[in-house]
Amino acid sequence: MDDPDLHSLPGFRFSPTDEELIDDYLKPKITGNDNKNTRRLPVIDICKYEPWDLPSFARIPTKDKEWYYFTEQSLRHKKGNSKNRSTEKGFWKPTGTDRKIMSGGKVIGMKKTLVYHLGRSPKGEGTKYVIHEYRTTKEFDGKHPGQVGF
Amino acid sequence: MDDPDLHSLPGFRFSPTDEELIDDYLKPKITGNDNKNTRRLPVIDICKYEPWDLPSFARIPTKDKEWYYFTEQSLRHKKGNSKNRSTEKGFWKPTGTDRKIMSGGKVIGMKKTLVYHLGRSPKGEGTKYVIHEYRTTKEFDGKHPGQVGF
Fold first, then answer.
1. Confidence check on the interface: ipTM exceeds 0.90, yes or no
2. InterPro entries per the record (chains A, B) (predicted)?
3. What is the mean pLDDT of chain A?
4. CATH number of the domain enclosing B61
């Protein structure tokens, strides 16, 4: 990365690892250490929009069809223990099990995958839109009640 | 990409699309249009080495455990219609079916996935090492008998 010519190579782009997303973006954002890097990712309420409207908010060119955002898990989305991720026309439905994000042998975060369905739960029609939602682990969140995810 | 600050973002790295690998690297290489970009990827005979020795040849830092090389499909690896991809200690075994790489509605190349097995075919023990081998389509290769793949 100390070679400036590298940056002009075709194929050089924003393609962060899970670990970077947690350590370099999510943690600074949550702890009030916003900086020129974290400010590159827009903060939006994912559920206020339909998935096809989201790319217009992104400010970093990425690979294929992939975009990055912060979104607050506001209290109004909570319903008992589960979170309501409904949009006007559909909803984001979790799929599979959450995966641990490890760094130096420790769990630093979790990653959940959600698929957009048109309609209303428990019905609804699956689509090709997918979100990978990142969160920090409970131990970390405990000190910082504001939760932010991608 | 015209914003220089982007390049200093954590997570900015070499992460080419399939289309870029074919159009910006493989085609120039095959057609004698080697340039400062293509010269970044080492040319090695993949089968002269074991997979755990390959990373030391790479000259571009990439995401996780991913490296890029050119390798010639030399005639001596050909055995009838199939290619012999044996190393000293094992062999690269194709898995699944080859995938088309599209650009502007046209097939510009193919992608084959191979898994390294320790031992000798048809026996051998599967490992976690995987190669994605890119080649241009026949129409293109016809003009340029030298074949190069990643």
1. no
2. NAC-dom (IPR003441), NAC_dom_sf (IPR036093)
3. 83
4. 2.170.150.80
